[in-house]
């Protein structure tokens, strides 16, 4: 299972506020099957099979365009661990166990 950190920034909107775009992206993400996600103050974490993550990210990248953005910048960071099972919860537990 892979984890992706995704930041989608709408540009050309006429405003410095992006919360409405983030809300629309979250609505679309909530309907996506085969992944789990967590919104953070600076990005969104998505967990699932790598091929599915790429599909979902492509869908999310289109949301600001559909809501009037003239340009969209999407940054993606992927953690794809294959030597043992990994998840967002497991990573947090691993750190907590060491504290």
Explain the layout of strands and helices:
Elements: E1 2-11, H1 19-30, E2 36-39, E3 44-48, H2 50-66, E4 71-79, H3 88-98
Antiparallel strand pairs: 1-3, 1-4, 2-3
Helix pairs in contact: 1-2
Question: How is this structure best described in words?
Answer:
With about 100 residues, the protein is α+β, with helices and mostly antiparallel strands. The chain has a single domain (about 1-99), classed as Alpha-Beta Plaits (2-Layer Sandwich). Helices cover about 40% and strands about 30% of the residues. It has 3 helices and 4 strands; from the N terminus they run E-H-E-E-H-E-H. The protein has a 4-stranded antiparallel β-sheet with strand order 2-3-1-4, with helices on one face. A hairpin with a 4-residue loop joins strand 2 and strand 3 (about 45-50). The longest helix has 17 residues, at about 50-65. It is elongated. The two termini are about 25 Å apart. The mean pLDDT is about 95.
Q: CATH architecture, please?
A: 2-Layer Sandwich
Enumerate how many helices there are, as a single number. Answer: 3
Largest sheet: 4 strands, antiparallel
Shape: elongated
User: How many β-strands, per DSSP?
Assistant: 4
Distance between the termini: 25 Å
Determine the structural class based on helices, strands and strand pairing: alpha+beta
Strand order within the widest beta sheet: 2-3-1-4
Give me the CATH fold name: Alpha-Beta Plaits
Could you spell the SSE succession in H and E letters? EHEEHEH
Q: Any idea of the CATH class? A: Alpha Beta
Low-confidence stretches: none
Domain Thiamine-binding protein: 4-95
GO cellular component, one term: cytosol
InterPro entries: MTH1187/YkoF-like, Thiamine_BP, UPF0045_domain
Family: Belongs to the UPF0045 family.
């Amino acid at each position: 299972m892979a984890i992706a950190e995704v930041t989608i920034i709408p540009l050309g909107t006429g405003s410095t506020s992006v919360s409405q775009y983030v809300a629309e992206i979250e609505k679309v993400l909530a309907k996506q099957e085969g992944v789990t996600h967590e919104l953070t103050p600076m990005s969104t974490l998505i967990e699932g099979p790598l091929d599915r993550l790429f599909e979902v990210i492509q869908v999310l990248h289109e949301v600001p365009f559909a809501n009037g953005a003239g340009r969209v910048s999407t940054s993606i960071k992927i953690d794809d661990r294959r030597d043992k099972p990994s998840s967002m919860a497991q990573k947090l537990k691993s750190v907590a166990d060491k504290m």
